[in-house]
Write a structure and sequence with these properties.
The structure is a single chain. By secondary structure, the chain is α/β, with parallel strands linked by helices. It folds into two domains: 139 residues, 5'-nuclease (Rossmann fold, 3-Layer(aba) Sandwich); 85 residues, Nucleotidyltransferase, domain 5. It contains ten helices and nine strands. Pfam families: NYN, OST-HTH.
Length: 286
Amino acid sequence: MENGKVIALLIDAENVSPKYIKTIIDEVSMYGTPAYKRIYGDWTTPDMASWKKVLLEHNLTPIQQFSYTQGKNASDSAMIIDAMDILYGKNVDGFCLVSSDSDFTRLAARLRESRMFVIGMGESKTPTAFKAACDTFKYLDVLMGMKKSETDIKQEAEKKTPAKTASKKAARTTRKKDAEPPREKETEVPAAPSEPHHDEELAAAFVPLDMIVEKIREIIDFDSDEDGYMPLSQVGVMLGRLYADFDSRNYGFSKLHKLVDYTKEFETKYEPLENGGKNLLIRNKG
């Protein structure tokens, strides 16, 4: 799906925490422009107070739905009706349904029947039925964890930068005064390498990594060229079709090629393209 697509972002506020809002907006923006940004819930209840703080900041349109029956999710029907109205308006290319509730399973399936690209987002506790009904499903708790890790690495690097700058200035001053030979250039502190996470609660929701490796092998055997190679991007597309919730970030890797390199089960090489770029190819070892 191209980044120029128009997406309808619909959030079930009663089943998603407001702490994920930045992650949600960033992730859906990778697929297209969220022209609709609607969020559903009973805004008269105290539970919605934390969401109210982020509505204006992220330009979310709150949709009020009263809870007519205690203990029932009020936003389900309103969100489903709005989704169908938007679908019939024919001015979007896809939907992003944000909820950890299986009640939206049929909605996701119906949207896909109308050739809509459906992105699902929710926590790792989301029922399998809803995840499978979407074209692709993203785990918010995983994405949130990845962002925290990247932030920690960046902050650690920023802490070291002032000290390095001061050290370089002091070295220049010393050289001017004492004509000492220049000091060797300090090497940059590399970012921490990606590694699989070991959160057992999260990992239990994903397809095991060894099963992913075996499936990659099967895909390559089925559709590789005479030398046994095929584009890694094509492998990624096939994995996404087989497992709606597949994402290399689920296993702690920002990119699929990092996951592949980590397994040490495949050979890779770059193929030059006519436009000057490179295409990463992959094949089974042996």
